[in-house]
Amino acid sequence: MDTIRALVFVFFFAASVSGSLVYNFYEASCPAAELIVRNTVTSTSFQDPSIPAKLLRLLFHDCFVEGCDASVMLEGNNTEQSDPANRSVGGFSVIESAKRVLEVYCPGTVSCADIIALAARDAVEIVGGPMIPIPTGRRDGMVSLASNVRSNIVDTSFTMDDMINHFSTKGLSLVDLVILSGGHTIGTAHCSSFRNRFKEESNGKFSLIDNNTLDSTYGDELMRKCSSVANPSVTVNNDPQTSMLFDNQYYKNLLSNKGLFQSDSVLINDDRTSKLVGDLANDQDLFFQNWAQSFLKLTNVGVKTGDEGEVRVSCATSN
């Protein structure tokens, strides 16, 4: 009964934030659209277990710049993809693969923006997260500028106030900030994204900058993996415990001072968010219910509908 009530709440919550988006938008024009996306995500994730986290990150990088309009997919000089902050973003080939199939069955019908949102939704469920019905009907944007990226993407070195300001400009609350940060329960990160937590000594070794926010044993492990002689392309798991499972372990890690990024650690060290972190660490159902709500809000950021934008034939180029 509690599960049913939660799903009903999510449905009405989604309807209240979806704007012009509609559930089953492609019911008549492309009935198999969501199934095609799901099958593509499932098959590629089976071949490459890193895909779900890449698709979730792709959604964030799309929606936070120009809104959820697939602007991050556009290729070319000075597009969003060309900015260094997007060089490690992956999952593009999965979206293009789904798009190619959809163009065979339903030419010029399903937007790349919807594919990204659906793929991220399916990716989370595939690795253990909740199933979330989401409305569709997004249109693809026609503007993609590298100059828009840095001012909109959250940096891993951000303070709490920095993150609050960034999220608020997208219509996302403090609670959304804490919940969506839980996406770090899956995926990996390059050492450069958290190198600011260490300082390099004269002998070439590293030491922790702040022992109060990062567990020393965990910090030593990270420093060994990311030493100056290591391959600069080396990555570590965002979640050192259950890196391939979408669960609430991320919040348990924060309680143990094992948040990988500075932007993770501030959540447990700030009075505005520490209690919620504790609640989420102790109740996975609470995390999943809140994730459904915050995820829906994320996929609604800056959407283009109706006569806005276009439906691209190829996600990499505008029509």
Automatic annotation (TrEMBL):
Gene Ontology molecular function, alphabetical: heme binding; lactoperoxidase activity; metal ion binding
Root EC class: oxidoreductase
Entry note: cofactor: Binds 2 calcium ions per subunit. Binds 1 heme b (iron(II)-protoporphyrin IX) group per subunit.
Positions annotated to bind heme b: 184
Cystine pairings recorded for this chain: 30-106, 63-68, 112-315, 191-226
Domain of life from the UniProt record: Eukaryota
UniProt xrefs under PROSITE patterns: PEROXIDASE_1, PEROXIDASE_4
Active site: 61 (proton acceptor)
Protein location: Secreted
Role: Removal of H(2)O(2), oxidation of toxic reductants, biosynthesis and degradation of lignin, suberization, auxin catabolism, response to environmental stresses such as wounding, pathogen attack and oxidative stress. These functions might be dependent on each isozyme/isoform in each plant tissue.
Name of this chain's protein: Peroxidase
Organism: Lupinus luteus
